[in-house]
Design goal:
about 650 residues; six-stranded mixed beta sheet; 27 helices; disordered N terminus
């Protein structure tokens, strides 16, 4: 039992034993006393740690619990299990009176970075794995990149009196004492104990007031709505926040329009995005990470889990199509000024976005708990507190990995393209050939950019080759996604002016070809499983997404022109109409729901395709519920207010 008190030093000691035989087990006790003395810890922390190295019988149970609650090296290390989390709840339940002191448990998540020179034997062992011997298609060097300077997550149970600064001091002393190539990182947000208070900021009070005002408006507006309904009076602008009227609008079965098929496309794309983000975010807490990067990626179904990157180009194409068609149709009757063109869109999108920003910035930290709670706080709350303005004004993408909500980059790119829309839409009616020629030139320039930057930076294409260069210059780049948007603009123009007509047979043939291209683009990604080829990656980064957008745009064109056949019938199903009204809110809220669930779990989980699908299905229900709340509270009222404003303007004109 003498080694039990060294809970705090357990990660370092284990690695030291593995790579430095000069540390015998029997000197743990004396080492602990020396470490406590020389680390210059806080008085209370040092006193509680000294209690841990006693041998009195009445203290053994809580010492054993503290050790038991701390993480140990878990099975599956050679499969990529780098998470040794222990038992979070058992640690927080420790509350023992020892003499004149009370020792309470505190759970800290340590990030232990093991440098490459330490891992020579481990990497050699992995290289001898049967997977690499029997499957020549696996890129060994690519897998080793996952293991280069890996960061292990280690949960330790320590006395509550020891702050994260004390833990850092003790860790630093032990690193230097053993002279091992590890770096242990711990901050205050990574340590939790029972009834730990969450520090409140002015933003929290603003968020409370903001949501309270919205709730007040909903209650008053709904009450007034019922009053008007009972009297039989006509509804007016004061029922814009009425939850009763807005629910009726949400589930209303409006008359069929040519654009109904867009609902199916948007809803299916949102489902795919949710599935993809469940896959990506759960990789932070799986026990078989190397399996994902080796065997699993070769499974057929796996391709559909890590291919949702195409779906954002679906939305860019849909956005371009709608922007072009709706503007050209509306300006046949009404004049739309530049100020109104920008202001209406900003007002339409901002309230729901502001709600999400406030949830990330303020409310998330109150719900962050467990060993992975730090991830929720870090990726949502901390980044949002620093970069909320970039999301609010749609410049999120320039923040790269420090952005407020990793998924909000799409809104930034889409709105930056929207800023350029007047250069096309204001002149395409009068100078169609010149404008379309300029669009073609921009398309070619954007494609050349994607090809060139891929070659120069040696950027990959699949999520397994993701790095900061890929994120900055490709995935988050407005220039890279511009071709998909331009294709949508062009097809919206064609549909409005009906510039050419195709026979039904030709429509059907091109429709089938479009579906074939989309399926082929997904399945052909398997060519990236072999050795990296920069020119192949450049070709795909330059052409794959525009081809996808072209296929999607033609499917839209066929459906809205009445030649979509069974595809149009399916995409125009009434169920898609309801969920189609929620797609913006689904996109906004899904990342918060998924990350809050996955990062609040208390144990590492096994990854498999079936588990991912079941998780995605369950989380989709929560995402839809969250999107309904967001829609009714923030999006629908603004739509209603803009509707009343348009009616007023129409009367004036």
């Amino acid at each position: 039992m003498q080694f039990l008190p060294l809970i705090l030093t357990f990660p370092v000691v284990v690695f030291s034993q593995s790579f430095s035989p000069k540390i015998p087990l029997q000197i743990f006790n004396s080492l602990a006393r020396k470490a406590i003395k020389n680390s210059h810890l806080h008085e209370n922390c040092a006193a509680d740690l000294k209690l841990l190295i006693t041998n009195e019988s009445d203290q053994k149970l809580w010492i054993a619990k503290m050790f038991d609650a701390s993480g140990k090296i878990s099975p599956g290390l050679f499969k990529g299990n780098f998470h040794f989390m222990g038992d979070y709840d058992e640690c927080l339940e420790i509350d023992e009176n020892v003499g004149n002191r009370t020792v309470a448990g505190q759970y800290c998540t340590l990030f232990v970075t093991v440098f490459d020179e330490v891992l020579g034997s481990f990497r050699s062992s992995v290289k001898e794995n049967e997977i690499f011997k029997t499957n020549a298609n696996i890129d060994f060097e690519g897998v080793l990149n996952v293991m280069k300077d890996p960061t292990l997550m280690w949960g330790v149970c320590i006395p509550k009196s020891c702050s994260s600064e004390n833990v850092a001091k003790l860790s630093s002393y032990l690193e230097n004492y053993f002279n091992i190539k590890v770096r242990i990182t711990v901050v205050e947000d990574m340590c939790q104990y029972k009834d730990k208070s969450v520090k409140r900021t002015p933003v929290d009070y603003f968020a409370f007031i903001f949501f309270a005002v919205i709730l007040f408006l909903i209650v008053v507006s709904t009450s007034y709505d019922f009053y008007l309904q009972m009297r039989g009076d006509e509804l007016n602008i004061f029922v814009a926040f009425s939850i009763y009227t807005n629910i009726k609008k949400l589930v209303a079965s409006s008359s069929n329009t040519p654009l109904d098929c867009l609902n199916g496309i948007k809803v299916l794309s949102c489902c795919w995005i949710v599935l993809g983000h469940v896959f990506v975010l759960q990789l932070f807490s799986v026990k078989n990470l190397l399996y994902v990067f080796t065997e699993w990626r070769h499974e057929t179904l796996s391709i559909f889990l890590w291919s949702p990157m195409y779906t954002v180009n679906t939305f860019f194409a849909v956005s371009g199509f709608l922007r072009s068609y709706i503007y050209l149709k509306r300006t046949e009757t009404f004049r739309v000024g530049l100020g109104a063109f920008y202001l209406i869109r900003y007002v339409r999108m901002t309230p729901a976005l502001l709600a999400i920003i406030l949830i990330h910035t303020s409310l998330v930290k109150f719900a962050s708990t467990g060993p992975y709670g730090f991830f929720t706080n870090n990726y949502l709350a901390i980044h949002c507190r620093k970069t909320w303005w970039s999301a609010f004004f749609f410049f999120t993408k320039i923040m790269n990995f420090k952005m407020c909500g990793m998924h909000l980059w799409y809104l930034a790119v889409d709105n930056q393209l929207y800023l350029c829309a007047p250069l096309i839409l204001f002149f395409i009616r009068k100078y169609p050939r010149r404008v379309i020629g300029a669009m073609a030139a921009a398309f070619v320039a954007s494609t050349i950019y994607s090809i060139t930057v891929t070659i120069y930076k040696r950027i990959g294409f699949t999520p397994f080759e993701w790095n900061e260069d890929y994120a900055s210059f490709i995935y988050f780049s407005t220039i890279h996604h511009a071709p998909s948007w331009l294709i949508g603009i062009f097809f919206g123009y064609l549909f409005h002016f009906r510039k050419f007509r195709l026979s039904k047979n030709l429509h059907f043939a091109l429709l089938v070809l479009s579906l074939y291209v989309m399926i082929n683009l997904i399945l052909k990604q398997t060519v990236f499983f072999g050795e990296y080829d920069v020119y192949r990656a450049a070709l795909w980064n330059g052409l794959a997404k525009p081809l996808w957008a072209l296929a999607v745009s033609f499917i839209i064109f066929s459906c809205v022109s009445g030649n979509g056949g069974f595809v149009a019938t399916f995409l125009s199903l009434p169920v898609f109409r309801i969920f189609g009204r929620l797609t913006y809110c689904i996109y906004l809220v899904h990342f918060s729901v998924i990350s809050s669930y996955l990062f609040n779990q208390k144990e590492v989980v096994y990854f498999s395709t079936s588990i991912t699908l079941f998780r995605a299905l369950g989380l989709s229900v929560l995402v839809v519920l969250g999107s309904v709340v967001l829609h009714l509270g923030f999006e629908a009222p603004i739509i209603a207010l803009l509707h009343y404003k348009n009616k007023y303007n129409e009367k004036r004109q």
